[in-house]
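Hi team,

Filling in the usual template for the complex we talked about on Friday. All components are listed, including any nucleic acid strands or ligand strings, so the model treats them as one assembly.

SUBMITTER: L.P.
PURPOSE: interface mapping
COMPONENTS: two
RESIDUES: 368
SEQUENCES:
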Amino acid sequence: MTPVRVSIVGVIASLLLILVVLELIRGRRLKERYALLWLATGLVLLVLSAWRDGLNTIAGWLGVTSYPPAVLFAVATLFILLVLLHYSTVISKLTDENVELAQRVALLEERVGRLGPPSEPPARAD
Amino acid sequence: MSFNRIVAVVPAYNESAAIGGLVDEIRSFDPALDVVVVDDASTDETAAIAAAHGATVLRLPFNVGIGGAVQTGFRYALEHEYETAVRLDGDGQHDPRELPKLLAPLERGTANFVIGSRFVDPGGSYRPPFARRVGIRVFARLVSLLGGQRVTDTTSGFMALDRVGIALFAEEFPHDYPEVEATLVALRSGLRLAQVQVEMRERETGSSSITFVRSVYYLVKVTLALLVASLRRYPRLEGARR
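RESULT (copied from the run log):
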């Protein structure tokens, strides 16, 4: 069986994770798009921590008989891997886009350079 | 625009010692040739020297690696509707005097993509160190196998393209260690490939960027890229075979 204290700590930790993520979204420091996986992580861990019978049952299915909270670790690890993998895809896309932007800047700069030096700002019509 | 317009794409990173002479050499080889130096965010005077010697200079705002730099040149060629693009390295190891050989198959219309190979002719003078020779040969075999056509040299980087080839590489060109993968992408996309024997020069200045750790990364990265490239599907190209 899962010790009660493990469940309590698990619930507090996952609530904390959810609250921090929500606060980051509220402060516009985290885009919803990248917060979804974190929220899912927090919710799944919250459910597994609070629903003690459920954790024990799932542990039983997986053959984890000696210490059901190990399943919590496994699930948390899995979600962290998912988040990291997701970030790798995001970074790859950003890298490609970044290079393309650099290339466009180089091409445009050359074209602008041929137009001559920057001229006086256009006179205001007032 | 009825005559054949050719652009020479020259990627350069901190080549201030070699670039001026190279630009002069290309221009004196054929004055009608437009030279575009792609400066990959050099920290020296490469861009200024190239411009002073009459090259068009494309300055990347930060270093994007050799593949990204070369691709910038191909994008320039595409935008300005060049018939032909050749690529020569900024360190001078690709000899402009070999250009007629490289351009001949394009002029005959028998190829979209010409590689200046060091190994077409078994009597060629280039004898790389053992490890490099093995690497070059392994990649040539792998690309030949996956691309369905015998390729003798996938790492030379000395190449010429017609419009079809320019359009393909402007759209997709690997960003680091690009040559091997680009060759396979070209074959898979249905470009007609020709290979001509060229001699390369010793690099005039600087040193090769390949160190041991990088060689390992190179080996793994390129092999992975080749396997992925051979599993992908390629859009049909106008003007290519197939």
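MY TAKE: Chain A has a mean pLDDT of 91. The two ends of chain A are 81 Å apart (CA to CA).

Thanks, L.
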